[in-house]
Specification:
The termini are far apart. 44% of the residues lie in helices and 17% in strands. The relative contact order is 0.11. It is of the alpha/beta class. Strands 1, 2, 3, 4, 5, 6, 7, 8 and 9 form a nine-stranded mixed beta sheet that branches. Among the domains are: 1-87, Spore Coat Polysaccharide Biosynthesis Protein SpsA, Chain A (Alpha-Beta Complex), CATH 3.90.550.10; 226-321, no CATH class.
């Protein structure tokens, strides 16, 4: 019924936990495809410890990069459904059962999603992830895209079960999106078919220094343009709704470059920050003139950057634990 795609590169102990989370599922009709991106450590040995015929191990001769490894893996899927699992994340025991229930209720849905919780390296689940309500229900094609683009809790693909045939019909992953491939695929599916979402937790995304979700996004490796250019042509709905979707997608694109700009600045990656700022402004992104002036000053002045760093993290702490 299901293939879980698990790309990995030189994280044997974390990979072990990810594998165990799949094998612990309460639904057993699945295949686990592990795609090793040419690891030069004990990764293969760790995989061989699991004597389970449902595990298939693929090892590349060369490192083709994270994005291409994900994209290549889809070609090997032959089951009706599939999901993605990064090697440092893990599934909760009822991921398959919960998402399959969504398909049972709504057979025409393009994907069925549960909630992916975020957890830090200390095993703590940040409280700020619960500030905004998670999507819940069945959304028709077009309406699904608008709902996703407007939510503050965008479904993370770790907790999504996709229909294989549909994704292949849509052309698989848009590798030109770089590190935005997950958002682009989720939006593209929602633009042309219905989706079902439940707030039930089904997976855990680890947010730590070296996790994919925390690694600084490079302007050379990420392209948010496909969030509009690739997605909108597939939109199913009225002209009025398409205009709403276009506006929402454009805001997501602008927000993506703003995210790179600010976080590159915090990480002292000035060239990356400047490149992201230029694209952000070119696309019509707005920041108050005084704030823009201060941020530009932070790009050129280390002392101002330190003050900005303190201010930024203070705001996060207030939002997370504030009165």
């Amino acid at each position: 019924m299901i293939t879980t795609i698990l790309p990995t590169f030189q994280r044997p102990q974390l990979l072990k936990r990810a594998i165990q989370s799949v094998l612990s599922q309460t639904f057993s009709d699945f295949i686990l495809h592990i795609h090793d991106n040419a690891s030069q450590d004990e990764t293969e040995k760790v995989v061989s410890q699991f004597q389970d015929p449902r595990i298939k191990y693929f090892k590349g001769e060369t490192n083709i990069g994270l994005v291409q490894n994900f994209a290549h893996a889809i070609d090997q899927v032959t089951t009706p459904y599939f999901s993605f699992l990064s090697d440092d994340d893990f599934l909760l025991p009822k991921f398959y059962v919960t998402t399959l229930e969504g398909f049972e209720k709504y057979p025409t849905a393009g994907f069925s999603a549960g909630r992916t919780l975020k957890c830090n390296s200390k095993g703590k689940y940040p409280k700020d992830q619960y500030i905004h309500p998670f999507l819940d229900g069945y959304f028709l094609a077009g309406d699904a895209l608008i709902a996703l683009a407007e939510t503050k809790n965008f479904p993370i693909w770790t907790g999504i079960l996709f229909k294989t045939e549909l994704v292949k019909q849509l052309g698989g992953l848009a590798t030109q999106a770089g590190h935005a491939i997950d958002m682009e695929l989720t939006l593209r599916v929602a633009s042309c078919t219905s989706i079902v979402v439940t707030p039930t937790p089904v997976a855990v995304l680890m947010v730590w220094k070296e996790s994919a979700s925390k690694v600084l996004i490079s302007m050379k490796e990420t392209n948010f343009d496909p969030l509009v250019d690739n997605v909108l042509p597939h939109f199913v709905g009225s002209a009025a709704k398409k205009e709403i979707a276009k506006r929402n997608l454009q805001q997501m694109r602008i927000g993506g470059y703003r995210h790179i700009w600010i976080h590159s600045l915090l990480a002292n990656q000035i060239e990356n920050a400047q490149a992201a700022r230029e694209v952000f402004l070119q696309l019509g992104g707005y920041t108050h003139p005084l704030k823009l002036k201060l941020l530009k000053l932070a790009e050129s002045n280390a002392c101002v950057r330190k003050i900005f760093l303190i201010y930024f993290h203070s705001r996060i702490m207030l939002r997370r634990y504030g009165s």
